[in-house]
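Same chain as my last thread, 284 residues:
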Amino acid sequence: MSFVPMSSLLERARKDGYAIGAFNANNLEIVQGIVEAAEEMEAPVILQASQGAIKYAGLDYIVAMVRAAAEKVKVPVALHLDHGTSFEQAVQCIRAGFSSVMYDGSKLPLEENIAATLAVVKVARAVGVSVEAELGRIGGTEDDISVSDREATMTVPEEAQEFVARTGVDALAVAIGTAHGVYKGEPKLDFDRLKAIADLVDVPLVLHGASGVPDEAIKRAISLGICKVNIDTNLRQAFVAAIVRVLSEKPGEIDPRKLLGPAREALKQVVKEKISLFGSAGRA
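reply #2:
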């Protein structure tokens, strides 16, 4: 199956009360592990390319790898730009073949964020590509984007209502207490804020920085309107740990395939666990 717009996956998830995993992909083995896990779990899946992934692998390579993987499976696959930084980059990804883009104008004042997001929506909608935006700022570090605790701000429900109404975005990433990267302690999600936002907006909501959030908190967030859950750090941890394990057992190993193969399998198991947690298994 070739790429599908993310919006079609999220609307069904919202209607039926589950969430779809959005997993960051940086190389061939990660792409393979994510897509194979989704196929085995019969789950729709979103693969994401961050700023760091685009710089590392190259836009054309990312599209080619994900397209090749998607064509080998029966489950629906969306390819999504994660934390797009400009209108120009969003257009570049759309032209390259992405089925979904995120424009992150969360650092801008509300009116500027609305105007910039609306420009991306107009272009994307004309060619059937879905758009995610962000309101409020999610702390932590993800590749080339860092937001300090001081800069992080929670999403204001009334602003979310206005933002969605004026931009027409397909999905909204909300700041309710999560952060990118590795948590120093257990994150505390603001479920009352999430419920207030869900009551006021009519689009699927997105949870960034979900690696390290307790399973029960994830389930509760999904029950309150989260339809897309972003996972990156957990994948990196599993992938690298498997490589370290192989090298510790065989310090003289020089075959990259014997390092990256086990890493792919370890990552694949994490993806399958997350798919089960999110309730999207068997939803393809």
